[in-house]
Design brief:
About 45% of the residues lie in helices and about 10% in strands. With about 400 residues, the chain is an alpha+beta fold. Strands 2, 3, 4, 5, 6 and 8 form a six-stranded mixed β-sheet that branches. Helix 9 packs across helix 11. The radius of gyration is 21 Å and the shape is globular. The relative contact order is 0.18.
Length: about 400
Amino acid sequence: IVATQFAKLYPGFKLVIETTADRPAYLQKIYTLAAANQLPQLFDEDATPFAQELAHAGKIVNIGAWLNKEGLTSVYKPLALNYDRFGNGSLYAVPLEFAMEFFFYNKALFKEAGITAPTTLSQLVSDCAPLKAKDIIPVAIDGVDGWPLLRYLAFYPFRLTGNTFVTNLAQAKASMASPTGNAAANYVASLGKANCFESGFSSTGYSDALNLFLSGKAAIIGDGSWDLSSLASPTLPANVRNNISYFLLPSAPGATTTRNDYVVSSGIGMAANASTWTPLVQTWVKYLIQHYPPVLAALGQIPAMKYNNIKIPSNVVEPLYRNVIAEANKLGTQTARPWDTELDPTTTTVIEQDLPLLAGGNMSPSAFESAIDQSVKQNAPKYFPGAP
């Protein structure tokens, strides 16, 4: 819609979007194009160590400096900008969307099992047994993609230290074998030992996991506001449609982050190729930032910009939809950094390969910790100058 409007002002402009089958395939394509100095004019890119390499090499645009120059920084939600920043505070990607992650749960299934929404991470584990006793899958999870299970590994460290632990771990200044890292590994192992996830979770995809919850077979799913249209759909079975609620990331003893501090993202940012950052491309990006918010809000989604006129679709279960959208006005000051954007690519791959083994009881917490520490020691210096 926005591109069509822009093309009327600038005849000859054409937005060509290329897609790939999955995220790993996309990343591999970007790595290959970067090595050949053939990056697209604009492309999706998280604030990863790889993106930092591109920034240090002058291959992508300093978006933070450009936003300041164009007077556009103030139009953004601060948390949206912060999500896409590197550790040094610099910003090399344009945020466009905004999302909050929750635990959605089925109140009827909880009532049947005689439990309440957990307020602590340990209670989330203990709630699994009574649900299993009723032949209910406690937690549906996408085990094929690495990030959902990686979230669970990150929960304890975030509650205990904010993002300090993962930042230090990425730079080999902290160890997975430390008390905080050990708490994270043991937590994932405890979820597996309690059979919290569906049988064969490591081969369950995103859509299948969501369907387990939406069909009433699973009691909980970790998901984001981006899936509200499905979670609040009027076509869901009545026993699901009328019983979906949510709870925020549970706390833990010794927590330093608050109830309203959890995973909040501005999606995958849009990086710009520095060698093709022409006046027309800059004009297009500025136009997009200014005109995308109302288009996104009209679809019932939250923009990264300060635009609150979110239209609640007429055909959804309104209380759930409206309540989730309202959480954007209650956010704390910290947001949990996804580990796959903080750690070096090799270590991220090692973690994502080993996490299903840890959760499945096929790898001990100590072996998991050792594998991660070894990978960080070998690979962190490539991406973080000064790492020990």
